Write the structure tokens for this entry.
Amino acid sequence: MPLIQVKVKPGARISQLTLLADGTYRADVKAPPTDGKANDELIRLVSQLFGCSRSAVTIRSGRTSRVKWVGVDA
């Protein structure tokens, strides 16, 4: 399962996932960082990017942090 590092910025105007020059991703998500809504939006964005189901994407570490390690089982 490959891991990617994602820096999450909740409360954005539009939801998008961007690859940065250092090889990490930045996720701008519309959802607020409450009740796991931003994490759910992040999982949706990553699954769309990699063309896999949402169940194939898991947050491996950093569930309550802005910097997360996300596993993709594609």
In short: The beta strands are 3-10, 16-19, 25-29, 57-61, 67-72.
